[in-house]
Amino acid sequence: MISQLNPEQRTAVTSSGQYALVLAGAGSGKTKVLTTRMAWLIQTGQVSPYGLLAVTFTNKAAKEMLARLTGMLPIDARGMWIGTFHGLCNRLLRAHYRDAGLPQGFQILDSTDQLAAIKRLIKTANINDEKFPAKDVQRFINAAKEKGERPETMEVWDAHRQRLVDIYQLYQEQCQREGVVDFAELLLRAYELLSRNALVREHYQRRFKHILVDEFQDTNDLQYKWLCLLAGSGASLFAVGDDDQSIYAFRGANVGNMAASERDYAKGNIIRLEQNYRSYGNILNAANALIEHNSERLGKNLWTDRGEGEPLRIIEQATDQLESQWLVEEIKALINEGGSRSDIAVLYRSNAQSRTIEHALFSARIPYKVYGGLRFFERQEIKHVLAYLRLVSNLGDDTSFMRVVNFPTRGIGARTLENLTDASREIGCSLAYGVGAVPGKGGTNLAQFVQLVKDMGSVAETVSLPELVQHVIEVSGLKQHYEQEREGAERLENLNELVNAATVFSLEENYEGMPAGKAVEPPVQADPDIMFQEAMSPLAAFLSHASLEAGDNQAKSGEDAIQLMTIHAAKGLEFKAVFITGVEEGLFPHENSLAADGGLEEERRLMYVAITRAKERLYISLAQSRMLHGQTRYSIRSRFLDEIPEACIKWLTPKVAAYSQASSSWSSGKSYPRDPYGRPETGSIAPRAPRTTSSGVQVGGQQFRIGQGVRHGKFGDGTIINLSGQGNDAQAQIIFQNAGAKTLALGIARLEIIA
DNA sequence: TTACTAAGACTTTTT
DNA sequence: GTCTTAGTAA
Q1: DSSP string, A267-293
Q2: pLDDT reported for residue A697
Q3: Strand B proximal to A59 Cβ, under 7 A
Q4: What is the pTM of this model?
Q5: Which among A438, A442, A441 has a CA at the least distance from the CA of A429?
Q6: Where on strand C do bases come within 7 A of a protein Cβ?
Q7: pLDDT of A685
Q8: Contact A566, A351 (CB under 8 A)
Q9: Which of A575, A581, A630 lies closest to A361 in space, CA to CA?
Q10: Which regions of chain A are under pLDDT 50?
């Protein structure tokens, strides 16, 4: 297995030091190195499968790793510690729930659940929700946890921050009372468990001889500390990552961990994988040149022996709609050449851009798939069923209680719930236990609801997991509710799918190293840590599975379709042909990113990621005007395009020379902040100075010029600020005094020239 | 209690 | 343009 590697890959795989940092460029065989190293370590007898821990960020990556490993070696991967940070921490906490101070069946809150819990807290604790919006509080708490901070130890410098810390404290108390943990808490609890409990820590430090980390540039401070603690002084730490592909700083990832690890382990063992097996030369040259503009890189240059290939094709269109139309034509051409649709990806910076593109593809009847969006376990009907199931598992789960107490409606209104909240708080119990204290009709309805959940609980003791799920769907009234709803058919289908998911889950023999489904005997063999474990109930295991693996993020597979996704979602993927759309100042780099520290560099890395997705052909497009937030905005091409060498590029529309005079803006009468490049930092309404030096366009006997006044039957009077195209295809951008900015086809719109 | 309307937001996102 | 949320009327 080693013989198929290039020299650098081989060095990495067989590295014998205590520490190695593999700087793996895009398309350089990162996963191959990681999995081959695992296989090599096991095969050469340096470690048993149980002495190995491999951690990734996504379930997808973990599955891929496991699949490749078992493909190379005939080993039983069950019980091996290969998983996501959250999955492994969950496993750790399940095994040692008592030492971690958690109830045995603790449940996991996803981000949505967490936000709901915080909103509820803000209400019950009478916190000013204008000063402390739930979203801000959530961000504060998660950021604190990701730095490993608890309320007691946090620095406070003003009253506002003090209050935030107090809310963090209250939130922790609420979670503890309800027996739930959020995502960040999984990591922090696991870290605290290891750092405080020497017995547990030493056990795992002894056990894991080799720790392997994927996408190391995406680790946050806490994850890094967790790794260091687990590695102790004896284990080998093998980290693979690419600082140039760090695009998640906004959610706490700290690229600095790469440099820090090198410093902390003082081994200086960096291995660079720079040979790229994915893209042609022009694509790589463009990517290399672009990323050169970033400072503080560890340094790396991709190369290939595949030749230059096609140049990058860049096009500038007048509007986002024309951009999409061009996209459709180009895609048609590619397909005519014999390309398959799924080899073509259309990437964009923000989700809002997909609408126009989808519309154009739809009109042209080109099948497409949009990635991103709601995942299976995040759908509201699924979350409703899960909330009932969580209540069955733990009546004290107030978040779930509030979610379904009146869904489907059963005459329990806001007033009744307010009474219940007050009563429960006074008694000091959870909502379900406080229903007796609510008088009147509301109280009766509440009592009936709690009885309903209790009845589900007794059924749970006698039937299998899928049977229970089916039962809950029926007696909760959810089934009936969606049967009556006009658009309920798909939701009903999803409910059936949930029963299937439960069936599949209960057939699995183990979950996170623990017995799952029908708790099988004997328990998972050969995992030495089984001695710490008590079997989790199948229901609790299923619920935790649902929180941790929200399901596929992709549209239904099957049909051969164009792939539409954000650049973030494209990381790790590759396509024969890639279109990067909307490459304009203000959008990409996004204007909001410029204010953030290191924001521009992260945007540039994002562009780097986008470029390196392409194997054969790369198209970049931009539009001079685009509908965004219901307004037309004008912008100039992204500075990133000026950072790519002309030698790699073929401009499909002429490259406009300089932008120094151009401005891009939303509304007149303001002055615009400038970035260090002397460019406007934000987009806006005042039309920018026309760029096309066109002397005018002749259509239907009329001569249109930039700056000319025109009158439209519907929009009124306005001024032409830009012209494009020729003859009947000519388009004009016009700012109407009352109707705002419009792009009109001169051959169609009836315009009257005025003074 | 529900259903409708108005107002405001709105970069990227896995677990 | 589209979604979520808060407020109000039926």
Answers
A1: ---EEEE-B-SSS-HHHHHHHHHHHTT
A2: 75
A3: yes
A4: 0.84
A5: A438
A6: 1-2, 6
A7: 33
A8: yes
A9: A581
A10: 515-526, 530-531, 659-694
